[in-house]
Amino acid sequence: MTMNKRVPFVTFRTRVRDETVEGPNPYRWDDKTTEDYFSGRRTILFSLPGAFTPTCSTQQLPDFEKLYDEFVKHGFESVYCLSVNDAFVMNAWGKALGLKKVKLIADGSGEFTRKMGMLVAKDNLGFGLRSWRYAALIDDGVVEQWFVEDGLSDNCETDPYGVSSPQNILATLKWLGAP
Ligand code: BEZ
Q: Which residues act catalytically here (predicted)?
């Protein structure tokens, strides 16, 4: 699926460690915008229904981490994993998985995901509004290729995973003859 959509401009509320902050929890808010993450570089974004959930935690995110260097060879500067979870949850997830390469983006309010057209209800799981599973190749803030799992819908009974896997994206890049 190709469609040249510009990624929506939003502000993401991140939490960063800052040793100058006194007390037992030395973190502060650090706002980042869409431009900070996506401007002036080729990036891959993949988005999933929830931190710590089984497929996301044991397959999709670890596989992107393992295959990260392959994406770098294709000229991508960053690989981002986004979820409609807050910055505290995303930081804890990254720490639990020992992430070193893939960067996490917390879209706690779901604003980015909604503006991407990917916000779905997952009330059937008690999750509220979350991201449909998808990935996108993004060049300087413009989506050049989408990898959206089939069946985008509210309260979907299944959780398709394959199209947005790193293996499928790499196979597609190879098939397209991408450098
Ligand atoms: C999973 O990644 O396995 C998952 C995602 C959302 C809800 C339930 C499971």
A: 56 (cysteine sulfenic acid (-soh) intermediate)
DSSP letter at 55 equals H
Taking the centre of ligand 1 as the mean of its atom positions, its distance from the CA of residue 25, in whole angstroms, is 30
Distance 99 CA to ligand 1 centre (A): 19
pTM more than 0.90: yes
Write the CATH number of the domain with boundaries 11-175. 3.40.30.10
pLDDT tens, residue by residue, 40-94: 999 999 999 999 999 999 999 999 999 999 999 999 999 999 999 999 999 999 9
Q: Is the CB of 125 under 6 A from ligand 1?
A: yes
Catalytic residues: 56
The Cα–Cα gap between 107 and 166 comes to 21
Asked if residue 156 has its Cβ within 6 Å of ligand 1, the reply is no
The single-letter DSSP state of residue 16 is: E
* 4 to 7, 29, 35, 89: CA distances (angstroms): 9, 32, 17, 31
Q: Are strands 134-139 and 142-148 parallel, antiparallel or unpaired?
A: antiparallel
Atom of ligand 1 nearest to the CA of 60: 2
Q: How many CB atoms lie within 10 A of CB 30?
A: 14
163 Cα–ligand 1 center, Å: 16
Residue 65 is classified by DSSP as H
What does the domain layout of the chain look like in residue ranges?
11-175
